[in-house]
Design a protein that fits this description.
alpha/beta; Spore Coat Polysaccharide Biosynthesis Protein SpsA, Chain A; 8-stranded mixed β-sheet; 37% helix; 27% strand
């Protein structure tokens, strides 16, 4: 089982609540399948609408301190060993439940990071990914499945983690 951490940077932005609802709605299938056990919403600022959504969905709500990593902030409230990092508007594509469940069930203890594909990424993001495949991953990003203990240890992975690329992908709502 895993905890889902969803980051909403600008809760008062246009369509922000709709994007958050799309992401949380996509996680319902994971809850029904027994993969997702809890959800944490990390907001960039306090917002009544986000608090209402969190209350209605049973998700924990935390406000990210200025300059802190949203994934580290959310991981502190997560209850499971694995944390799925998402941004509001991220929607895991078909097959994600089976892929993540299989990965979690077979991951060796030294494996700490898996990465879902983001086909909509631009050229700069793809170049960064190519560099990370050689040097390792220094910081988590949206679309990563990370062991909670690694996230709680700090905002930067030391030593860098080798990412295992999964066939599941994330689309934008």
């Amino acid at each position: 089982m895993l905890s889902a951490v969803t980051y909403i940077a600008r809760p008062d932005g246009p369509d922000a609540i709709d994007q958050l609802a799309d992401t949380l709605g996509a996680l319902v299938a994971g809850v029904a399948a027994g993969l997702v056990s809890d959800a944490v919403i990390v907001a960039g600022a306090e917002n009544d609408e986000v608090a209402t959504v969190a209350d209605a969905t049973g998700a924990a709500l935390v406000v990210r301190p200025r300059g802190a990593s949203p994934w580290l902030t959310g991981a502190r409230s997560a209850r499971r060993d694995w944390v799925l990092c998402l941004e509001a508007g991220d929607v895991p594509a078909e097959g994600w439940i089976r892929t993540l469940d299989r990965f979690i069930g077979t991951a060796r203890p030294e494996t700490a990071l898996a990465r879902l594909r983001r086909p909509q990424s631009g050229l700069p993001a793809r170049l960064i990914l190519r560099g990370e495949s050689v040097l390792g991953v220094a910081r988590p990003r949206a679309g990563d499945l990370v062991r909670r203990e690694k996230l709680v240890a700090g905002p930067v992975f030391a030593p860098r983690l080798k990412a295992r690329h999964l066939i599941a992908r994330i689309e934008r709502a």
